[in-house]
Amino acid sequence: MRLAVIGAGAVGRSVVELAGEHGHEVVAVADSSSAVVADGANGPDGRTPGVDPDAVVARKAERGIVGDGDPEDALAADYDVLVEATPTTLGDADPGFSHVTRALERDRHAVLANKGPVAERFGDLRAAVADSAGEIRFEATVGGAIPAVSTVEDIEPGHVTAVRGVLNGTANFILTRMAAEGLDYDHVLAEAQDLGVAEADPSFDVDGTDAALKCVILANVLSFGAVDDPADAREFTLDDADVEGIRDVPGSTLRLAAEDGRTVRLIGEATGETVRVAPRLVPENGTLAVSGTQNIVQIETTHAGRLNISGRGAGGPETASAVLGDVGRLK
Known about the structure:
This protein is of the alpha/beta class. Helix content is 38%, strand content 20%. It folds into 2 domains: 155 residues, 3-Layer(aba) Sandwich (Rossmann fold); 167 residues, Dihydrodipicolinate Reductase, domain 2, CATH 3.30.360.10. The chain contains 13 helices and 12 strands. It comes from Halorubrum yunnanense.
């Protein structure tokens, strides 16, 4: 597949670097202010050669741009799959939503790492897909390398009653350290920021927004996948989620929980009816008590019982592996 990668952060750069290992070719890359597009001349095999991945990544690191072109050049390039890896935005979910719909209007496929369009405008995306020969995939929007979406799809959403889990590595790192060292939230947050685990503004993670967006996406998969007519599905957005973060979890709560063989984790849960994210008491040695930046997804099924999938829920190469896995599912 020929890929146009929109977004040159950690995920976009990793897609550019790893695409060749998966048998794909990157023909265009754009960041917010620049682009590089492969020369239109055909190579010896009659195909247009892709961009040089090493040169793109090096230029981004050294000069802060990926090329001398305009981002519009990448959107207009001759590609098979658009990879949408720009930062997540809420509300109208632009520019990511517009990038994806432009690809669909050209009957091209789109693979998203950007959670915004899938969490905030899922119905609009479904309508755009219905009018296109292209498809969308979005495994990378939920749990990084963990195949949560594809597992639900393989089981069939109508046979899944709930999906829950630990879906934010930053919040989990903080809660793990608070429990292990008997430290309070502010102390561990500062440590996480020094280590690069938490952003300078950690609100998206510690307030539960990131986990809630992932659960909203899963709720949409469950809701739309369980009906024959999309008009019968309930569409979820972040406004439909009941969300509580970890800022107000005192160290004393974790210490008391430990005395009872339990600990606290930020647990998100999605069904076809509800989305909830909040700190919950879980068994200290239980499945949901993953440590550090690990994530875990539990899938409750009607016939196969409970399935547990754990792994790295974030990171450039990890999330890029989910993106490229989605590309491989397209035809």
